[in-house]
Design brief:
Blueprint: E1 5-13, E2 17-24, E3 30-36, H1 47-58, E4 67-72, E5 78-83, E6 87-88, H2 89-94, H3 102-121, E7 134-136, E8 142-144, H4 158-163, H5 172-175, H6 184-199, H7 209-220, H8 248-254, H9 260-269, H10 280-284
Antiparallel strand pairs: 1-2, 2-3, 3-5, 4-5, 6-7, 7-8
The structure holds adenosine-5'-diphosphate.
Length: 305
């Protein structure tokens, strides 16, 4: 393959891409080659996506996957050369042999929010955060992957949508079809992932987009004009069943292992009105992170065997 990388073997296939293990010839280090098929872009190769990724490449952060290189090959497929990270948070959550303690959850949340804060501060939204986009290095560092890509990709075919592209991490403003979204969509997804780490099972697993709204509002209450001015004018808003906001006691019952501060932070990230949701800075300054227990050091976090 061109540009100084060898392709060794296929390691995975996602909705839009095939991923290979490879090596950077000059350094001999392992890299992942993510080949995104041109056909998956809405209008051919999306230059703005490439520009954004090139920009991200310069912004190194220990909690964001390193993008080593980006180029279009002769067949016009977009090739992303990434650091090779063999594990992700979804694998860990799903491996029932692994025990997860509150200090581990705090450590993964801290690393996720630090990576996200770095990207938001630089004007980049993720738009598709979920546990399998949070990759884990052999040293235990969590790194956000697939930044800036989600926006440029078209919808995959119907059949794939239901089980491959997950809607469980979508914020209410996205579900309502809001045109102008903000960094708050990513904070919502992190709040849902926080809940999933505590529950060890997906928090709001909607069966389709309209069920996703029902499941979300059953758990967190239906937004009203009073709590979220303008909500009734959003494109997909129509007469909703009105569920009451859960009481603090109901939340405690749903998350029995959570401390009061953990619940406060989760609720701040899961504010239905995006304007009231905490931003990444407020999340990072939240007293949950300074109360006991201290976050587990990355090297001591549980890893997939
Ligand atoms: P999805 O569409 O499920 O997000 P991707 O297209 O991102 O999946 O990747 C498909 C598979 O390739 C992943 O499930 C993972 O096993 C592997 N993979 C992706 N990125 C990397 C990486 N940087 N290092 C190692 N493996 C990776």
């Amino acid at each position: 393959m061109s540009s100084g990388y060898t392709k060794e073997k296929k390691v995975g296939e996602g909705t839009y891409a095939v991923v290979y293990l490879g090596k950077q010839v000059v350094t001999g280090r392992d890299i992942a080659i993510k080949e995104i098929k041109t056909g998956t872009f809405k209008d051919g190769l999306d230059m703005s996506a490439i520009r954004e990724m090139k920009y991200l490449q310069e912004l190194k952060h220990e909690n964001v996957i390193e993008l080593v290189d980006v180029f279009a090959d002769k067949d016009k497929n977009l090739n992303l050369i990434l650091e090779f990270l063999p594990s992700d948070l979804e694998m860990i959550i799903n491996d029932k042999k692994i025990m997860i303690i509150p200090a581990d959850i705090k450590s993964w949340m801290l690393m996720t929010l630090r990576g996200l804060h770095h990207c938001h501060r630089n004007g980049i939204l993720h738009r598709d955060l979920k546990p399998n986009n949070l990759l884990i290095s052999p040293e235990g560092y969590l790194k956000l992957a697939d930044f800036g890509l989600a926006r440029s990709l078209g919808h995959p075919n119907e059949k794939l949508t239901s089980n491959v592209v997950t809607r469980w991490y979508r914020s209410p403003e996205l579900l309502f079809g809001a045109q102008h979204y903000s960094p708050a969509i990513d904070v919502w997804a992190v709040g849902i992932i926080f809940a999933e780490l505590m529950l060890r099972t997906p928090y709001l697993p909607g069966k389709d987009d309209s069920d996703q709204l029902v499941v979300t509002f059953q758990a967190l209450g239906t937004p009203t004009e009073e709590k979220w001015p303008g909500v009734s004018h959003l494109p997909h808003y129509n007469n909703l069943t009105v569920f009451p906001e859960p009481s603090r006691q109901e939340l405690r019952n749903r998350f029995p292992a959570a401390t009061e501060l953990a619940l406060d932070l989760m609720c701040g990230m899961l504010s239905l009105n995006p304007n009231n949701r905490l931003d990444t800075k407020a999340c990072l300054l939240h007293p949950y992170f300074t109360e006991s227990p201290e976050p587990t050091e990355p090297e001591k976090l549980p890893q997939k065997s």
